[in-house]
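Structure ticket #2291
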Amino acid sequence: MTQPFLDALKGFAGVALIMLATISSAPVAAQPTQHAQPPPSDVVPLLSTASAPDTTGVPVNTAVPALSTFLQRVEQFHPKMLAARIDRDIARAALTEKRGAFDPQLEVYDDYMRYNGGSGKAKQATDNTVAVGWLTPDGLKMAVGYDYDRGAVKSPLSPTGTGGEVFFDLKLPLLRGFGINPKRAAERQAIVKTGTAEVYFGLTRLQVLLAASTAWWEWSAAERRLQVQRDVLDVAAKRAALIRKRVEAGDLAPFDGVEADAEVERRREVATKAERDVQKAAFKLSLYAWDADRQPGPPPPSSAAIERLSLSSVTDEALGKATLDALETRPELRSLRLERQIVGIDLDLARNDKKPRVDFFVQPGYDAGNGGVGMTIKTGLSVTIPLRTREADGRIEAAQLRLSRLDVQQSNDVQTIVIEVRDAVNAVNNAVERHEIASKALALAEKLEQGERLRFELGDGTLFLVNQRERATAEARLKVVDIEADYAAALYTLWAVSARL
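Resolution: structure written out below.
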């Protein structure tokens, strides 16, 4: 059997030459439109996270280290972020699944026949085939194999020589199915959907980080408001102790002692309520404080609440650049671009399905061994012409309508993003202006408080007026705290809506 197999190997070399000649001379179908098979460069930039450009005039997120550390922890361990990462992995797994349609397959076929060959005579035959076949994304089907048929083989099969037949099988679609076909479309859409998963991850990231930063500043403001209430309570408690001594000494009327004690209790109640506000804010903040074990972690220490941002306005130039950055990098618009690619692939597939199916096939081989005939070949052309194409027509119409709907949605999203950026910039600048006014009002309230306290110490004022001035100063301090919290929330919102958070 050695020589027949050597003959078979020689035949296989001849088959390879025929295969190369066949592929090189095969007609090339018209290239599909850009939707059918966009080059990788059309997809890859959408999968990567765009780096935040330098936006002159927009404050940079470098002023609050504790918050930055907290947000890093949120981004790494928050359940929504973990779920978004899993969704990315699922999309990649789906892409692997779709690419499996082009995996090579080994086929082994063994058949034994004993049948009536006519006039009551029994005949026998065997058919043994081993082949490796695969499908290319362009729709080209190929197979390389070895066939060994012996005995009285029925038509349309035929016996082979003692060395068997080495063959190469090629089927090339010339119109429908070439370049774009259901399996190729599914693979390309799976590639785009990995980008969609990346976009969803980016959108989830912005939403989670914005919510976490908002909770942080609410907690920080609550801590600072509590500190203000504790400060005024401490002042009232110390003064009440001094007044009681002066009342005991007969320097002040007992009524002043009652006034001082009443003020202490009033401020104590306000401070107690402020403590509850801090607890509520801390509970809300703890929803974002997760650890590596997927367990809620402790909130930041109270000392972190004293960190504040330096207030600065956003220039008109920065507004324009932030708007352009948002339109370029916002996940919603990137998602629409990816969805447009998916619909475009459906549209190209539907258009291709309207074409006739024209398949060219060729199967050269080499029949070796005793009884072999040497080179063999089977070739031909199959044509299928659709008489009606309502299915493809319906899919084309549906895809075109989906593209129109995406155009409408894009117009709405662009307008929404532009308004969101402008509104955030307006909120930032408004907070800066309010802070300047409130800071001046606080300075004046402190001067009035000091003057009223001096008058009381000199015996020219009343404790009631001192308490009123201290309350006014405390309210002015709280107003400054609230405005600074509004500024921080507006600034982080600006970073989020311009995809820079």
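Closing remark: The longest strand covers residues 122-135.
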